[in-house]
Amino acid sequence: MAIAIKLSDVLVEDAKPYAQAMHRSVPKQIEYWARLGKVAEENPDLPITMLQDMLVSIEEVKAGNLSPYKFG
User: What's the pTM value of the predicted model, to 2 decimals?
Assistant: First the structure.
């Protein structure tokens, strides 16, 4: 469910260069930051890079980009 929210101009301006660099819209960049922040609060002992990799992995599974791991 999408809803309209009011964001500060500073947050929107801060998000613009990141959105452009990551090929996202500004709202999608802010949504990404919110998701990452939520995961970071839930897992304070894990490094941000690991949390980012986990979010990417979740999206890869949703997209069906799976391959079996071969031990040895």
Answer: 0.79
Q: Is 6 left (phi over 0), alpha (psi -120 to 50) or beta?
A: beta
The pLDDT tens digits for 25-58 are 999 999 999 999 999 999 999 999 999 999 999 9
Q: Where are the domains of the chain?
A: 11-62
Burial label for 42, CB within 10 Å (0-12, 13-18, 19+), is: exposed
C-alpha 70/C-alpha 72 separation (Å) is 7
Q: Is the dihedral of CA 23, 12, 17, 56 positive or negative?
A: negative
